[in-house]
Amino acid sequence: MKGRLIVASNRTASPGAPPVGGLAVALWDALSERGGVWFGWSGDTVERETRGVRLFAEGNVDFALADLTEGELQGYYLGYANRALWPVFHYRVDLAQFDEHDFASYEKVNRRFGRVLAQLTRPDDTVWVHDYHFLMLGQEMRQSGWDGPMGFFLHIPFPAPEIFTALPQHQRLARALCAFDLVGFQTDRDTANFRRYLTEYCSASVEPGGAITVFDRTLRTASFPIGIDAEEIAALAESEEGRSAASRLGKIIDNRSLVIGVDRMDYSKGLPQRMEAFGRMLDDHEELQGRVSFLQIAPPSREAVDAYQDLREQLDRLTGRINGDHADLDWVPIRYLARSYPRAALSGLYRLARVGLVTPLYDGMNLVAKEFVAAQDPEDPGALVLSEFAGAAEQLAGAVLVNPHDIMATADAIHAAIVMPVEDRRARWEALNAAVREKDIAWWRNEFLAALDAIRTDG
After folding, report:
1. Of residues 363, 412, 415, 440, which has the active-site annotation?
2. Residues 6 or more apart from 377 whose CB is under 8 A from it?
3. Are strands 126-130 and 5-11 parallel, antiparallel or unpaired?
4. Does the annotation count 326 as an active-site position?
5. DSSP state, 62?
6. Closest CA to 111 of 80, 76, 84
7. In this predicted structure, what is the pLDDT of residue 93?
């Protein structure tokens, strides 16, 4: 019989409340099935460091929540995780800030959390650690005596070795990652980047099956592209809330074609380039004046980081300029909403749209692309314009793929998607929908855990 599952992520689902979002549901389902512990930051800050956790039980799952001090929040989370790791892993070394004090805080939090989590484990447990906040947590657990199966999944891209080595602490981070038995990535490209780094910089030996011998131990690496609950998104699109949102917007845009983008306000999402491409498309196609509307939903995130404040100002200026150049008395080409909307409302808006515009400069996966596909009307589906630098591009070959840095080509792709005949849209959507449903969120969870469980079986 399998032991408990121990999940570690920077934030957990809220104890006592239904999990929100596909990932939270997937992890909750796995925990509920096997029993276990969900460990993470409580979201609270305290004046002094505390070594314990707050425990909440829900069924056969325990939530173990640890607090951060204000200094740790600034150094570990806002500092190293979001000012160093996030930009470097998204190929924006120019925006990275390499502060030794921030790294010391990051290492300290990973050490403290790792020691706490090791104390919560039992000999037959399986540990699953998530994302860039906890790159060093597994190493700390090993040093605290945990020797059971332990996997790590990176939700964001893993950059090419030439980019990763920009981090002054890259060797320490890589050695820490190799404390895990299984390291999973979103795409084959990410997996190849990690393997290449280990062979070129750490003298690793890579076996054909993905096993890597390095630092006097053997680990496995593999790609596990994360998915969505396609059935849920399709149902939300036709729910009362989804239909209501579509109806409200439909009355405003009248019979105009809707182009939609939904992203966190983050410099990795390519929002300025996207708006410039839409403006260029209007410049080049006067026949579309007054016949198309672009809705960009971009809720703010990490507003305390300077780069995000600059992005907000840039988007405000671009929206004003393009609307000023093209708007008419009864038409505004861009509606830019810096706020969030419920998933049901977004699903209804996806279904209404003629074009889904998902053009990040770099992204680990990008589930908006998959949600857009799942929400479509099979008889009259919208077309997906997708960045070739989104992880989803490896699976969604039926999308109109673009280089988001190429403003003219992206403008042409938006136009092609708007005027695409329904027969072509159906053919593309059928291929996209099959890919989204074949590897959904349950597939992702089961595949990773099966690979991790196999490590225990293989000894």
Report:
1. 363
2. 351
3. parallel
4. no
5. E
6. 76
7. 97
Catalytic residue of the set 155, 170, 285, 453: 155
**pLDDT at residue 17 in the model:** 74
**386 Cβ partners below 8 Å, 6+ apart?**
358, 359, 366, 369, 392, 393, 396, 399, 400, 401, 402
* DSSP structure string for 57-95: EETTEEEEEEEEEHHHIIIIIIIIIIIIIHHHHTT-GGG
Mean pLDDT by 10 residues, the chain (459 residues): 88 77 80 92 87 87 94 96 97 96 98 95 95 97 95 97 98 98 97 97 88 95 95 97 96 94 93 97 96 94 70 92 94 94 96 98 95 97 98 96 98 98 98 97 94 78
Residues 201 and 310 placed together within one structural domain of the fold: no
Task: Report yes or no on whether pTM surpasses 0.90.
Answer: yes
Q: Residues 6 or more apart from 245 whose CB is under 8 A from it?
A: 341, 344, 345, 346, 348, 349
3-state secondary structure of 223: strand
User: Residue 259 sits in which domain range?
Assistant: 230-438
| 163/304 same-domain check | no
Asked if 363 is an active-site residue, the reply is yes
pLDDT of amino acid 3: 87
Retrieve residue 294's tokens.
């672009």
Q: Give the pLDDT of residue 13.
A: 82
Residues 143 and 278 in one domain: no
Which two three-digit tokens encode residue 93? 């070394």
Q: For 343-393, where are the E strands, in sequence order? A: 355-358, 383-387
Do 242 and 194 share a domain, yes or no?
no
Kindly state the tokens that stand for 254. 């009248």
The predicted structure's pLDDT at residue 72: 95
For the CA atoms of 29, 32, 34, 39, the dihedral, rounded to the nearest 10 degrees, stands at 90
| Residue 303: predicted pLDDT | 60
| Cβ–Cβ under 8 Å, residues 41 and 14 | no
DSSP code, position 328: B
Query: Which amino acid, one-letter code, is at 74?
Result: Q
The number of distinct structural domains making up the chain is 2
Residues 235 and 216 in one domain: no
